[in-house]
Write a structure and sequence with these properties.
Shape: globular
CATH architecture: Beta Barrel
Number of helices: 1
CATH superfamily: monomeric porin ompg
Order of helices and strands: HEEEEEEEEEEEE
Strand order of the largest sheet: 1-2-3-4-5-6-7-8-9-10-11-12
Number of domains: 1
CATH topology: Porin
């Protein structure tokens, strides 16, 4: 992610900032790394960037109301959204010139994963913090203008209980449009092995340096796992959310404001999610 000021902001800077402002537990990776670049004696040369932001809510993949029931006896208060009060989020990214990338991202949460443990004691009432560690490779297919990414993410929650998840990521992009598929590789308290999240994104520059981003998200679900049970209402596929976002640079270097209107879809149990608005202030450096 790159710094920007109001009048000199570039499209790439604002697009990166908008993804940061999305509050969707994902971080944008630079799109200018060339897999064909020959590095002369500097195989690890690249670009290190950071970001920090405050968000009115932390809405993960369109869950604005409830995940439940996540456990046979309910989620015991540890339910969606991830945080319905202001959340602090941020991270760092390193993009190598040969196309590889790695990064770290964190967010405060409004509940404790440890409280899901049947043997949890009072000390686990403290809210958890989410940490995402990710990496992968981004490249392009010849001169077609088609880009691709292959990567993965490890989700760690502190304190946690059976909540460390491993997820693959595959993506294609062309111009302003991109689509990704992220598949969970193990059973955890928030999902089943094989659950796949599909996200289509269109990012478009508007007059006066505004940036619009539209997203459509859907899920393919595995119906039964070690922690997320199959019920009579369970579904194998559901539209998850539609998100309309607008962002603009602030008159300070690296500063960005934005908001998103989230149109809720259904969770894995067919429960309709509420529509909501999320506002944010971010800084890239």
């Amino acid at each position: 992610m790159k710094a920007a000021i109001v009048k000199a902001a570039t499209l790439k800077t604002l697009v990166s900032s908008l993804v940061l402002l999305g509050g969707l537990s994902q971080v944008a990776h630079a799109d200018d790394a060339s897999p064909n670049l020959v590095l002369a004696g500097t195989p690890y040369e690249g670009n290190l960037t950071g970001n920090i932001g405050v968000y009115s809510k932390y809405i993960l993949r369109g869950i604005t109301q409830t995940y439940g029931p996540l456990l046979p006896d309910g989620a015991k208060g540890s339910d969606g959204p991830e945080m319905d009060t202001p959340a602090l989020q941020g991270g760092v990214d390193y993009v190598f010139k040969n196309g590889f990338y790695a990064g770290y991202w964190f967010s405060t949460l409004g509940y404790s994963y440890a409280s899901l443990n049947p043997n949890a004691s009072g000390k686990h009432s403290q809210n958890s913090t989410e940490s995402d560690i990710y990496g992968g490779y981004t490249g392009s297919i010849g001169t077609t203008g088609i880009g691709y990414t292959v990567g993965g993410t490890v989700y760690v929650y502190t304190p946690g209980w059976e909540s460390t998840g491993y997820e693959t990521k595959l993506g294609l992009s062309y111009g302003e449009v991109g689509i990704t598929a992220q598949t969970l590789l193990n059973d955890v308290t928030f999902g089943n092995k094989g659950d796949t999240y599909f996200l289509a994104t269109w990012t478009h520059a508007l007059p006066k340096d505004f940036i619009f981003t539209g997203q459509l998200g859907a899920y393919a679900y595995k119906k039964d796992g070690d922690f997320v049970p199959k019920t009579t209402d369970s579904t194998s596929f559901a539209f998850r959310h539609a998100t309309l976002g607008l962002s603009h640079a602030l008159p300070i270097k690296g500063g960005t404001w934005g908001f998103q209107y989230i149109i809720g879809g259904d969770n894995r149990y067919g429960v309709k999610q509420d529509n909501t608005i999320v506002g944010s202030l971010g800084l890239t450096f």
